Amino acid sequence: MRLLQVLELRGRQAAETSMETYERAVLLSFAEYTDNFRHVQEFLSFCEVLEGRLESLDAATREMVLSEVNGVKMRCYAAMLKAMGAYLTHMDRRGMVNFFAQAVFLNQLDALSFFREQVLPEIPASLVPDYLPGLQQEVEAKLRKLLDRCVDLPDFRFEN
Q1: Which site in 8, 52, 100, 139 is 20 to 30 Å from 152, CA atoms measured?
Q2: Does residue 155 lie in a domain region?
Q3: Considering only CA atoms, which of 1, 13, 81 is closest in space to residue 43?
Q4: Cα separation values, 133 from 22, 38, 43, 44, 45, Å
Q5: Euclidean distance between CA atoms 76 and 14, whole angstroms
Q6: ∠112-125-86 over CA atoms, to 5°?
Q7: How many Cβ atoms from other residues are within 10 Å of residue 5's Cβ?
Q8: What is the extent of the structural domain holding 116?
Q9: 31 domain residue, yes or no
Q10: Could you tell me which of 108, 73, 115, 71 has the C-alpha nearest to residue 91?
Q11: 160 within some domain
Q12: For residue 101, which of 88, 83, 115 has the smallest C-alpha distance?
């Protein structure tokens, strides 16, 4: 029960972070956006740790707790995708993209791909919102578009 209480509290905090990003997308700095993404990503990692701790529970209890963990995880992940979509849309309208954003976008694209390929298949389809696959594709496409626009500086270290 304590694990579920902590999960619910941390899930609420992660969802609030995503809601703030979504509502303030046009006002947030890039640093705030990346901090908010990291906060939700840490929560999703916390969920993975929790799932690992469920091995010692009896099957009925494990399934009940796992269902709760997956439900909270999906709510937070969906909220994060919505927030990312709002912020990335705003960033796309701004024009030039900072070179240092490239590393952040690559990390985020990797995290989303991992979730899509490794985590989502393990979650019961009934817990995955119908709109989530489309939203995931949309956000990944926005990240790729912004990656293409990152101002790249030539690396002269290896030239003769």
Answers
A1: 139
A2: no
A3: 13
A4: 19, 21, 21, 18, 20
A5: 6
A6: 40
A7: 9
A8: 2-149
A9: yes
A10: 108
A11: no
A12: 88
H-helix segments, 24-100: 30-53, 59-94
- Burial level of 51, CB count in 10 A (0-12/13-18/19+)? middle
What distance in Å separates the CA atoms of residue 18 and residue 54, rounded to the nearest whole number?
A: 27
Residue 134, pLDDT score: 96
Q: The whole model's pTM is what?
A: 0.85
- The angle, 0 to 180 degrees and rounded to 10, between the axes of the packed helices 2-23 and 59-94 is 10
Phi, psi at 97, each rounded to 5°: -110, 135
Report the residue count for the chain: 160
Q: How many structural domains is the chain composed of?
A: 1
Candidates 17, 48, 24, 21; CA nearest to 114 is 48
Residue 136, in any domain of the structure: yes
Q: Are 95 and 149 in contact (CB under 8 A)?
A: no
